[in-house]
């Protein structure tokens, strides 16, 4: 069963086609990794799925409902949440308040306080909850953003480069966290450059190149695909 079904979607920015006739199915309950070189169109595809851009053409379905023309907030209410690539925590506010702001959408009263503590503990942010978000390390800011996305209790969590700026230990921990959300039923679509992380979490992989689907399949099949190694792995080191 598909939770998201992207059908023939394109996005043009002036003369540039950032996403070109993409079909993508994300199955309910899976961890699906979207990989590809810089500029492949990964972040644009995410923004199309969550409704931050209207597509130039094509349709997007969520739980079989056509959401192509729905606004981002309506998609959040359906159960989608995104951690974008560019940092979006409120740096001048305390960590705890960042989580509180995100929780307001779904929770109130005692339930909200309980969820606040649960998220701060889950993300190892409880000891730093009084600090300004801007004073956290880069890795901790990424965790805070993941926590803010989780605060919306999504059925589908989209993570755009969640481990950028993290140490290998932090990256591994993030992978384990994502697997734990997934084992509780959350579907996860994640853009990542770190191949160790992709190996750790991915159940299926889609490769985007120059805005188009270049390959898709199981993690094993993608890792063995020489064409993928040429376009992606070769350049990943230079990135
Ligand atoms: P990726 O996330 O795979 O690195 P992006 O989706 O960010 O790729 O970008 C794909 C292409 O679209 C790039 O050439 C980028 O410069 C261009 N692009 C992305 N967003 C915009 C925008 N808002 N306006 C114009 N061009 C954009
Ligand atoms: Mg990107």
Automatic annotation (TrEMBL):
Ranges where the ABC transporter domain occurs: 4-235
GO molecular function per UniProt: ATP binding; ATP hydrolysis activity
CDD domains noted in UniProt: ABC_Mj1267_LivG_branched
DNA-binding listed as a keyword: no
EC identifiers of the protein: 3.6.3.-
UniProt keyword list: ATP-binding, Hydrolase, Nucleotide-binding, Transport
SMART domains: AAA
GO cellular component, one term: plasma membrane
InterPro entries given in the database record: AAA+_ATPase (IPR003593), ABC_AA/LPS_Transport (IPR051120), ABC_transporter-like_ATP-bd (IPR003439), P-loop_NTPase (IPR027417)
Cited function: Involved in beta-(1-->2)glucan export. Transmembrane domains (TMD) form a pore in the inner membrane and the ATP-binding domain (NBD) is responsible for energy generation.
Name of this chain's protein: Lipopolysaccharide export system ATP-binding protein LptB
Species whose genome carries this gene: Bradyrhizobium ivorense
Organism lineage: Bacteria, Pseudomonadati, Pseudomonadota, Alphaproteobacteria, Hyphomicrobiales
